[in-house]
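#struct-help
A.M.: can someone run this one for me? Single chain, 263 residues.
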Amino acid sequence: MRPTRGRLAAFSGARRAVAAVLLGAIPAAIPAAIPAQVPAGRGFLLGTPEGTFTLRGGWALASARSDVFSFTTERLTLDRGDFSSPAIAADLSFPINRRTDLVISGAFQGTTKRSEFRAFIDNNDQPIEQRTMFDRVPLTVSVKRYLTNRGRSIGRLAWIPSRFSPYIGAGGGIMWYRFKQVGDFIDFNSGTLDVFPATLASDGWAPTVHALAGGEWNLSPRLAAVTEARYEWAHATLSKDFSGFGRIDLSGLSTTAGIVVRF
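D.P.: on it. Structure tokens below:
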């Protein structure tokens, strides 16, 4: 028996109703497949981050333990703390595995201080003044190891960053430096104690190694706050303007804080 037209219409209407119910259920099923603690669109990323960019700022303590610094602080109105300076740094990190990153870093640490000779004045009873500049620019590669998981995956798509992720690391590279003094100086070598104007400068590159430790506090799926302490070891040979002095100490501890951007 062939179905009547009325029966065909009823069957077609029922089929459309079932399809509408099924299509309407699909959007509701998608967030239901993600655990309740991971609200859709908030609190997680779609996939593990491919890397991070970090911008940090803080303070760089200079060790200043070589003889050129000892001579300068003995003769001029400077102390070792005057060679410490503000610091700004940037890092680009790429994951090697779940807890390890390869980090490419660059930083600038620099200061300029005015001074005068401690125990001498010129023929006009005026101070004998100068400016001293000390800059350091380390360019390094590090391996950074997180001490805990920095995040966890939920299913195949969602990745949730951990609230806090401490890390340690080490690395090396090269450091550009400049030590420069401009002003009036006393001729101690000739014994005349004559005052003369001069620009004394030494700059160049030196190898450097470092160790670091820090921690990241999660702010959002894309952002985190970071603090880091890094100690760098480096020494370099001074130019002929500072003949008679040993290698300059470029080592020091930097402490910084900043923002991490995941991408």
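A.M.: thanks! The helical segments are 5-32, 67-75.
D.P.: also worth noting: The domain at 48-262 is CATH 2.40.160.20 (Porin).
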